[in-house]
Design goal:
Number of domains: 2
CATH architecture of the largest domain: Alpha-Beta Barrel
Shape: globular
CATH topology of the largest domain: TIM Barrel
CATH superfamily of the largest domain: Glycosidases
Distance between the termini: 35 Å
CATH class of the largest domain: Alpha Beta
Length: 502
């Protein structure tokens, strides 16, 4: 049996303009993300700075607009001054967050250089665990002040006469977590985040700041944490962060594919809390959201327990992603687009080797994981105005989540290019969906292409030996007549229907 589903969109019913930073990512000093990932001097693909050209090429293809760095849990014990100056004089340190040794051969200036080579901006996280407001203002001065002061002149002596002009700064990381170095209560964090925000913006009034929200929806302090932190910081920060990861350890695929509905509820809840604080303060400012950690993460948990401590760049958090993981990532991307009115920054965590769309071998090749492709499609084709989707779809229930639509979908209108792109996931594992798209407010639609990511084996993966085992094809059957679009969405498939519109 083939199920039927329908979406109606109107060009004037706009959720919001998709901020390009919705397709950001994350590089932490963790595992092989930096050493052996983006930075590997001596590799045949390395440039004169040690940056892997093959990795850079794959990242530039993704058009990642912003990358969060250097953490993550790592940042709460990190002294940014260890990563500047002559590389051969930098200290090696114990990284207590991940039980490794940090050689500090790669730091702030190297990352800025690498980000320019990757065509992306920097989102810098300051340490509010073992450090505080003084180091927070000093790193802003070092990075962004022109010259004529101690820290800015030090940057000049390090070979960077022009300021880096880093725009977005995170006020710590997951400070609600007991695992975090320098863990704080909401009131403790709210106070230090407020004071750090003040001096950072006094140093450079042009920057934007992200305060830490809860590290997950499941934290016992969730909601109260957000309200308390914003009670302190609301007038001084621009974004509140959200983090979430999903997994399928029980091999319950229908529930796994429905997790994005929980992501949707998480975003709605946090937005409501920020609006409560706005009302409480009689503020005219709207607080936007930065979903700066999101992904699937569970495959590598047991392997990581077997690693010996105090290694340099061991293979940590190296999830090998399946076809079903790619479907979940597609649903999560659609959810982010649906909330583009409030979520202005999002960071797929992470980018290379560590729970990442890109994998490398030390001294060897690089390849794209299954999750690379929905992220690529959304980043390249998902820019413009997100349109309100009116969806009619059959639904199913799982043990945890009810009323799950088989069709997960959204449309983005790029008016300047005269294109509408429909992103759609068919969650059914056994039945195709007969999809109808009604674009009644446009004069005419013409199908440019219909990209499909599918595989008969939902556990199929890409490897260095078989890098093209799970890749998209352009043989989808979408057709348009007038303003009506028809397509068959294969079972368990990610679909991108690109339309030229008038």
């Amino acid at each position: 049996m083939i199920h039927s589903a329908k979406m109606i969109v109107d060009k004037d019913f706009v959720i919001g303009k998709v901020d390009e930073r919705l397709y950001g990512s994350f590089i932490e000093h963790l595992g092989r993300a930096v050493y052996g990932g983006i930075f590997e001097p001596g590799h045949s693909e390395a440039d004169e700075r040690g940056f892997r050209r093959d990795v850079l090429q794959m990242i530039r293809r993704l058009r990642v607009p912003i990358i969060r760095y250097p953490g993550g849990n790592f940042v709460s014990g990190y002294d940014w001054k260890d990563g500047i100056g002559p590389a051969d004089r930098r200290p090696k340190r114990l990284d207590l967050a991940w039980g490794t040794i940090e050689p500090n051969r790669f730091g702030l200036n190297e990352f800025v250089d690498w980000a320019k080579a990757a065509g992306t901006d920097v989102m810098w996280a300051v340490n509010l665990g073992t450090q505080g407001i003084d180091d927070a203002r000093n790193v802003v001065e070092y990075a962004n002040h022109q010259c004529g002061t101690y820290w800015s002149d030090l940057r000049v002596t390090h070979g960077y006469p022009d300021p880096h002009k880093i725009k977005v700064w995170c006020l710590g990381n997951e400070m609600d977590g007991p695992w975090q170095i320098g863990h704080k209560t909401a009131a403790e964090y709210g106070r230090v985040a407020l004071e750090a925000a003040k001096v950072m913006k006094w140093t450079d009034p042009s920057i934007e700041l992200v305060a830490c929200g809860s590290s997950s929806l499941g934290m016992p302090t969730f909601a109260e944490w957000e309200a308390t932190v914003l009670d302190h910081t609301y007038d001084h920060v621009d974004y509140l962060s959200l983090h979430t990861y999903y997994g399928n350890p029980e091999d319950d695929t229908p529930t796994f594919l429905a997790r994005s509905l929980q992501m949707d509820d998480f975003i709605r809840s946090v937005a409501a809390i920020t609006d409560y604080v706005k009302a409480k303060k009689r503020s005219n400012r709207k607080m936007y959201l930065s979903f700066d950690e999101w992904n699937v993460w569970f495959h590598s948990l047991e392997a990581d327990k077997q690693l010996d401590p105090w290694q340099t760049a061991p293979p940590q958090l190296e999830d090998i992603y399946t076809m079903e993981d790619a479907l979940v990532i597609g649903c999560m991307l659609i959810t982010l687009i649906k909330h583009s009115d409030r979520v202005k920054i999002a960071c797929l965590a992470q980018l290379v080797n560590v729970i990442a769309p890109i994998m490398t071998e030390n001294g060897g090749t690089a390849w794209a994981q299954t999750i690379y492709y929905p992220f690529l499609h959304a980043s390249v084709y998902g820019r413009g105005n997100a349109l309100v989707p009116l969806v009619q779809s059959p639904k199913y229930d799982t043990r945890e989540i009810t009323d799950v639509p088989y069709l997960e979908t959204v449309a983005v209108h790029h008016e300047e290019q005269g294109e509408v792109t429909i992103f759609a996931v068919n969650r059914s594992l056994s039945e195709a969906l007969s999809f109808e798209g009604d674009l009644r407010s446009f004069e005419k639609c013409e199908v440019v292409e219909h990209l499909v990511l599918e595989n008969d084996n939902l556990k199929a993966v890409n490897t260095s030996i078989r890098p093209n085992n799970v890749v998209p094809h352009s043989a989808g059957d979408a057709q348009a007549e007038g303003t009506q679009v028809q397509a068959r969405l294969s079972p368990a498939s990610w679909n991108v229907i690109r339309l030229r519109v008038k």
